[in-house]
Amino acid sequence: MFYHFSVLYKFKKQHNSKGFTLIELLVSFAIVTMVSAIVLSRQSAFNGTVLLRNQAYKLALDLRDMQIQAVSPTSDYSLGDFSSTFGVYINKATPDRYLLFIDSNKNGRYNSGDTIVKTVKFDKRFKITGISPGNIDSVSITFTRPNFDAKFGGNGAVVNAQTVKIFISPKNVNLSGNNSRAVEVSKTGQITVTTS
């Protein structure tokens, strides 16, 4: 009978050592939940940053496209020709879009009579929040053959600045850790995207 008790004790001891207790299971679940919440909150901020950067690069690539169209011997746009002046028009009054245009009268800025190649809309979560130099509400950035140089026109006049910056920000500030990006165009035709 003593032998029988020791066999039962060994069986019971082995049986109890397998599996999780309810407390161990709850602690494990709490740890997994906290880690998942941290990862998901960081993922949202990361996605916002990536989307903001993409919007800035979209504007920079459209500027580069207009520059290439101006200096190339033939235009991808049927409305342009060998000597066309191409440009991008940005206005703070319409912060969710900008225009790609052909400067028909070659005055270096967008006028209502110029040919609009395309209207580009931002993602609904982003907008143009500023133009530097700060004394202008709108800017036309134009390129004319044979140089890659940029010409700036704003508020109906020529802008005498070495660079123009266009600031893009999320409409909802919580969308991104970095609140804005700037597309910078220099008079020499260099186009860069920076964190501002």
Spell out the blueprint of helices and strands.
Elements: H1 2-16, H2 22-71, E1 86-91, E2 97-102, E3 115-121, E4 126-132, E5 138-143, E6 150-154, E7 157-158, E8 163-170, E9 181-186, E10 191-195
Antiparallel strand pairs: 1-2, 1-5, 2-3, 4-8, 5-6, 6-7, 8-9, 9-10
Features:
30% strand; minor pseudopilin epsh fold; four-stranded antiparallel beta sheet; 196 residues; 2 helices
According to DSSP, the number of beta strands is 10
Estimate nothing, just give the exact number of structural domains. Answer: 1
Corresponding CATH architecture: 3-Layer(bab) Sandwich
Give the biggest sheet. 6 strands, antiparallel
User: How does the overall form come out from the CA principal axes?
Assistant: elongated
Overview of this protein structure:
This protein is of the alpha+beta class. The protein has a single domain (32-195), classed as minor pseudopilin epsh domain (minor pseudopilin epsh fold, 3-Layer(bab) Sandwich), CATH 3.55.40. Helices cover 33% and strands 30% of the residues. The chain has helices at residues 2-16, 22-71, and strands at 86-91, 97-102, 115-121, 126-132, 138-143, 150-154, 157-158, 163-170, 181-186, 191-195. A hairpin with a 6-residue loop joins strand 5 (138-143) and strand 6. The longest helix has 50 residues, at 22-71. The radius of gyration is 30 Å and the shape is elongated. The mean pLDDT is 81.
